[in-house]
Amino acid sequence: MMVKAKPRSLEIKAKRLRREGLVPAVIYGPHVEPIHVAVPEAELEDLFRHVTRSTIVEVQVEGGETYHVFLKDIQVDPITERFLHVDFYVPEPGRMLTIPVPVKLVGTARGMKEGGILEHVHEYIEVEGLPHKIPPYFEIDVSDLGLDESILVGDLPWDDELRPIPPLDDPIVTVLAPRVVTIEAAAEEEAAAEEAAAAAEAEEAEAAEGEAEG
Amino acid sequence: MSLLFPKRTKYRKQQKGRIKGKATRCTDVVFGDYGIQALAPAWITRQQIEAARTALARATHRGKVWIRIFPDKPITRKPAESRMGKGKGNVENWVAVVKPGTIMFEFAGVSEQEAKRIHKIVSYKFPIPTRLRRRFHLGGER
């Protein structure tokens, strides 16, 4: 994905830019001096419809360089829901960075057809890796997942250039067995225990009465 | 759940104050899938919070509910037919100060259509107009 940005002077207030349909933004990174730019709002909306936070986006600055960036921060007006400001982060090629990668689930789990509930534990997985190795998202096929089965962080392909931050035995997605069965069983057990207790009490009472009479 | 109020406060009574501007905190849906957002400034009483919570809990069935506001402001009132003076009245209620944009409640575990229906039911419990907000996701993340 690519967006075109115009360099902007800090003397022009952000409010004026927004009135003109532009969103103020900044491009920065460990080896890049901050560059203040303005991006057309429509172009930004279109971009946000297709990317994730771990997608590398090309930002072409008018009359300047093209940067490969990650979306670091997006400020949205809470009431109008219009974009206020965007931070583009230029990663250093050989340097590891930590970033959340979204997880997309594909298919319908076998366990769901058996009455289970699909729990998506990690919607994002925090990863540490080299910029070119970071995927836009992880796609996980859950169609083979039965009741009480999980897909763990360790099940995804990792290497030295891309490592997960959460432990490898953390579940990403799991199919929980319906709890109705256990509740019924527990209720039956409770009822049996209550009956036994009531019978014991009645016996004790009878014995006590017999003693009193005697 | 009984009505909310702070366990301990530094001062017993507060001045009235004015609600100015828009919210800058608590403006994003961060826990659930949907949020109920205030569109006007108001004091939300603990009774209103409880009414909304009950309505949400009933409507979402097995869904999960988060309360993002807390009534930490004491409201005082003088007894009826008392003369002016003789100091500030007694604490009568507790309210949460809400600015436009505040996400007051969040919930999860329901479909979008269901969420709209739930919002309509819960919106009657507030003295201000509210709006249903979805959690912000980039397009590629859904």
CATH class of the largest domain in chain A: Mainly Beta
Largest sheet of chain B: 4 strands, antiparallel
Output the number of helix runs of chain A. Answer: 4
Give the number of DSSP strands of chain B.
7
Give the topology string of chain B: H per helix, E per strand.
EEHEEEEHE
Shape of chain B: elongated
Mean pLDDT of chain A: 84
Brief write-up:
Chain A is 25% helix and 38% strand. Chain A has 214 residues and is an alpha+beta fold. The mean pLDDT of chain A is 84.
Notes on the protein architecture:
The complex is a heterodimer of chains A (214) and B (142). Chain A is α+β, with helices and mostly antiparallel strands and 214 residues long. Chain A has two domains: 2-89, Ribosomal Protein L25, Chain P (Beta Barrel), CATH 2.40.240.10; 97-176, Beta Complex (RNA Polymerase Alpha Subunit, Chain A, domain 2). Helix content of chain A is 25%, strand content 38%. Chain A contains four helices and 13 strands. Chain A has a six-stranded mixed β-barrel. A four-stranded mixed β-sheet of chain A has the order 10-7-9-12, with no helix packed on it. In chain A, strands 8-13-11 form a three-stranded antiparallel β-sheet, with no helix packed on it. The radius of gyration of chain A is 29 Å and the shape is elongated. The model of chain A has no long low-confidence stretch (mean pLDDT 84). Chain B is of the alpha+beta class and 142 residues long. Chain B is built from two helices and seven strands. Chain B has helices spanning 46-60, 112-123, and strands spanning 34-38, 42-45, 64-67, 73-77, 90-98, 103-108, 130-134. A four-stranded antiparallel β-sheet of chain B has the order 3-6-1-7, with helices on one face. In chain B, strands 2-5-4 form a three-stranded antiparallel β-sheet. The radius of gyration of chain B is 17 Å and the shape is elongated. The model of chain B has no long low-confidence stretch (mean pLDDT 93). Chains A and B meet through α2 and β5 of A and loops of B.
